C-alpha cells in the first residue's frame, strides 16, 4: 500500500483500510473480522443509520434545522457503515476504490445520457 497519509485534505480508502487493519490487529480481533461477521456488523450499522431518519418524513438536502449533535451522530453512523464496508472489502481481497470506479463506468454505459437530459 502506498501514499497512506493522514493530512488535512481528502481521506483515502487506503488510509481507512490501514486504520481498520491496525485496529483489529492491536486488539487481537482479526479472527472475528470474517466476511460474514463484517457483513452482519455493517448491516447492523445501516439499521442504526436508518433509525436517524425513521419517522422524520422527507428530509431536505443539507439537513436544515438539524442540531449539531444530530449531524455529528449521523456522521458517526455513516462512518461505521463505511469502515465496515472498507474492512469487508479488504478481507475479501477486493480493491474497493478500483471496483467502485469500474462500477461507475458500467453505470454510465447502462444509463446513457439522453439528449433531453443534457441541459439539466
Ligand atoms: N468487532 C468490532 C467492533 C467494533 N468495530 C469498530 C467498527 C465500527 O466503526 C465501530 C462499531 O462499534 P460498536 O459496535 O460499538 O457500534 P457503535 O459505535 O454504533 O455503538 P452503539 O451500537 O452502542 O451505538 O467499531 C470493529 O471494527 N470491530
TrEMBL record:
Keywords: Cytoplasm, Hydrolase, Magnesium, Metal-binding. GO terms for molecular function: dCTP diphosphatase activity; magnesium ion binding. One of its GO terms (cellular component) is cytosol. Gene3D superfamilies: MazG-like. GO terms for biological process: dCTP catabolic process; DNA protection. Its main location: cytoplasm. InterPro entries: DCTPP. It catalyses: dCTP + H2O = dCMP + diphosphate + H(+). Transmembrane segments: none annotated. Its EC number is 3.6.1.12. Its cofactor is Mg(2+). Pfam families: MazG-like. It is found in: Cytoplasm, Cytosol. Homotetramer. Hydrolyzes deoxynucleoside triphosphates (dNTPs) to the corresponding nucleoside monophosphates. Has a strong preference for dCTP and its analogs including 5-iodo-dCTP and 5-methyl-dCTP for which it may even have a higher efficiency. May protect DNA or RNA against the incorporation of these genotoxic nucleotide analogs through their catabolism. This is dCTP pyrophosphatase 1. It comes from Heracleum sosnowskyi.
